[in-house]
Write a structure and sequence with these properties.
By secondary structure, the chain is mainly α. 64% of the residues lie in helices and 3% in strands. Strands 2-1-3 form a three-stranded parallel β-sheet, with helices on one face. Helix 3 crosses helix 4, helix 6 runs antiparallel to helix 7 and helix 6 packs parallel to helix 9. The longest helix has 45 residues. It is globular, with a radius of gyration of 23 Å.
C-alpha cells in the first residue's frame, strides 16, 4: 500500500511539473514565427535537396572545416523534422521544443527522486528547472535545440553514473552510460565537460545523500566510461579543432582567453537579471547588475553555511563547467547557459526544501523573491522572442509576395527600414539564407547596410515598423 501511495504521489508530482512547464511557456508555444536564420536554413536546404538530402548532409559524423562548424546529428535530425512544419504550423514546432524542455524537467525530477532525496527537494528541482530563465533561450529558439538535447543526455548520464557509484559496477549500467555519453557529444560539442559533471554529481550525492564510505573505483569507472565516446569524437574532429585554436575558424567561434573574465561575469549575473533577454559582455556594473552578482554570491555562501563549502564549491564547478567551452568566445549568448540551469535548480531546491521543513519564514521569503525575479526574467525573454517571431512572420510573408509579383527579379533588392522597425530581427531572417543569396537564379536581397560594396541595387523597397514591405 505504501509503495502504491508513493507511486501515485510521483505521478501527481509529474503532472504538476508538466502542467507548470507547459503553461509557463505559453508565450513560446504561441509564437507565430522564429528567431533567426538558422531555422530557415534547414527549410531552404530541404526545399533544394529534399529531406533525405538534408539527412545525408547533416547526419554523418565528419571532421568539418573548423570546430565551430556544428557536427550534431541528433539535434539536426530533430531540426530537420521541425523544418517540415515551420512554414505552416509554427505552433507544432514550438510546442515540440516546450515538450522537450518539459521532458528534461521531468527527467531531473525522477533522477533526484530515485536517489532517495526528499519529495519536496525533487519537486522543487523539477519546477525550478522548468521555469528557469537559463533555459528559455534554448527553448524559444528552435536553432538552439542542441542545448536541450545535450542537457537531457548529460542529466541521464549523471543519473546512471550516480547509480553506478551507489549500487556497483554492472555491465548494463556501464553500457547505458557509454551510450548516453555518446548521445551527449553527438548533440553538442559542449558535452566534452560531461566527465567533470559526473564527478560533481557523484561528489554532491555522496555529501548530501550517502555520506560514509567513498567508492573511488566506482567513481573512476563512471568518469572513464563517459570519457571514451568524447575522446573518440575529439579524435575524429582533431584537425578542425586545430584550425579553430590556430585562429583559422569563423570569427564568432575563434576562442581567446581575453574574453573569459567578461563572459564569466555576464553568465554569473544572468539568472537574477530581469533583462537582458540576449546576453551582452562586458555586462556593465550598474546597480541592477551589482545586485544580481551579489545575490548569486549570497546563494553560494548560503549553500556553504547550510551544507558545506565542498557543496558550495561543487555548485560553482557544476555551474561553470557547461560554460567552459564558450567562455573564450567573443560573445556570450543566452542559450549557452542552458546546462547551468541544472545545478542552479538543484541549489535552489535544496535551500528551499530545507527552509520549508524547518518552517524558516525569512529564508523562504528571500527564495520566493529570487524565484519571482527569475520568472519575470523568463517572461521577458519569452516576450522578446514573441515580438521577434511576430515580426519575422510578417516579414517572411510580405517579402516573398513582393518578389513573386516582380518575377523575374531585375537585380539586387535593397531594403530600407523605417524608424522603429525591428531591423536586427529581419536581418537575422536574411543572414546567410540561400533563398536570398543571388545565386542559381535566386534573388539577392539585403538591407542597405549589408549590400556588398560595388553592387548597385536594381530595386529599393521600404520596410515598415510592422515588418512589412511597402
Amino acid at each position: 500500500m505504501l509503495r502504491l501511495n508513493a507511486q501515485l504521489a510521483k505521478l501527481a508530482d509529474a503532472w504538476v511539473i508538466l502542467g507548470v512547464s507547459v503553461m509557463g511557456h505559453i508565450g513560446i508555444i504561441a509564437n507565430p514565427g522564429f528567431f533567426s536564420h538558422d531555422e530557415w536554413d534547414r527549410v531552404d536546404f530541404i526545399n533544394e535537396y529534399g529531406f533525405w538530402g538534408y539527412m545525408a548532409r547533416f547526419m554523418p559524423v565528419q571532421v568539418g572545416p573548423e570546430f565551430g562548424h556544428p557536427v550534431r546529428p541528433i539535434g539536426f535530425v530533430q531540426q530537420g523534422l521541425s523544418a517540415l512544419g515551420m512554414p505552416s504550423a509554427p505552433i507544432l514546432v514550438h510546442g515540440f521544443d516546450v515538450l522537450l524542455h518539459t521532458g528534461i524537467a521531468l527527467l531531473l525530477y525522477f533522477a533526484v527522486s530515485s536517489l532517495k532525496a526528499p519529495r519536496s527537494f525533487s519537486v522543487l528541482a523539477g519546477l525550478a528547472f522548468a521555469l528557469s530563465p537559463l533555459t528559455t533561450g534554448a527553448v524559444g529558439w528552435v536553432g538552439a535545440s542542441f542545448d536541450q538535447w545535450y542537457t537531457l543526455f548529460c542529466i541521464a548520464a549523471c543519473w546512471v553514473a550516480v547509480l553506478i557509484y551507489r549500487d556497483g559496477i554492472g555491465a548494463g549500467r556501464v553500457i547505458l552510460l557509454f551510450l548516453l555519453a555518446a548521445g551527449a557529444i553527438l548533440s553538442k560539442e559542449a558535452a566534452v565537460v560531461l566527465p567533470g559533471l559526473i564527478l560533481m554529481a557523484i561528489v554532491s550525492f555522496h555529501l548530501l545523500l550517502q555520506p560514509g564510505e567513498v567508492y573511488l573505483r566506482r567513481a573512476g569507472v563512471a568518469v572513464l566510461v563517459s570519457l571514451l565516446p568524447i575522446l573518440a569524437y575529439l579524435l575524429i574532429r582533431l584537425p578542425a579543432l586545430m584550425v579553430s585554436f590556430s585562429g583559422g575558424g569563423h570569427s564568432a567561434y575563434s576562442p581567446s582567453l581575453g574574453f573569459v573574465l567578461d563572459n564569466a561575469v555576464a553568465y554569473f549575473a544572468f539568472p537574477l537579471l530581469v533583462q537582458p533577454s540576449e546576453m551582452r559582455a562586458p555586462i556593465g556594473f550598474g546597480p541592477v547588475q551589482i545586485l544580481a552578482i551579489l545575490a548569486h554570491l549570497g546563494l553560494i555562501i548560503w549553500l556553504a553555511q547550510r551544507y558545506s563549502w565542498l557543496i558550495a564549491g561543487a555548485y560553482v564547478a557544476a555551474y561553470f563547467l557547461p560554460l567552459l567551452p564558450v567562455l573564450p568566445l567573443p560573445q556570450p549568448a543566452a542559450h549557452y547557459i542552458h546546462g547551468s540551469a541544472v545545478p542552479l535548480a538543484l541549489a535552489l531546491a535544496a535551500l528551499a526544501s530545507g527552509a520549508w521543513h524547518r518552517r524558516d519564514v525569512a529564508p523562504l521569503a528571500v527564495l520566493g523573491g529570487a524565484a519571482l525575479v527569475m520568472m519575470l526574467h523568463n517572461l521577458a525573454i519569452q516576450r522578446r522572442y514573441y515580438a521577434d517571431g511576430a515580426c519575422q512572420s510578417r516579414f517572411m510573408v510580405s517579402l516573398p509576395a513582393h518578389l513573386a509579383a516582380l518575377e523575374p527579379v531585375p537585380g539586387p533588392v535593397v531594403l530600407h527600414a523605417e524608424r522603429r522597425a525591428r531591423t536586427a530581427t529581419m536581418r537575422r531572417a536574411l543572414h546567410d539564407r540561400r533563398a536570398y543569396d543571388g545565386k542559381g537564379g535566386r534573388p539577392l536581397v539585403r538591407f542597405a547596410q549589408d549590400l556588398p560594396a560595388g553592387l548597385e541595387p536594381a530595386l529599393r523597397l521600404r520596410v515598415t515598423p510592422t515588418c512589412e514591405i511597402r
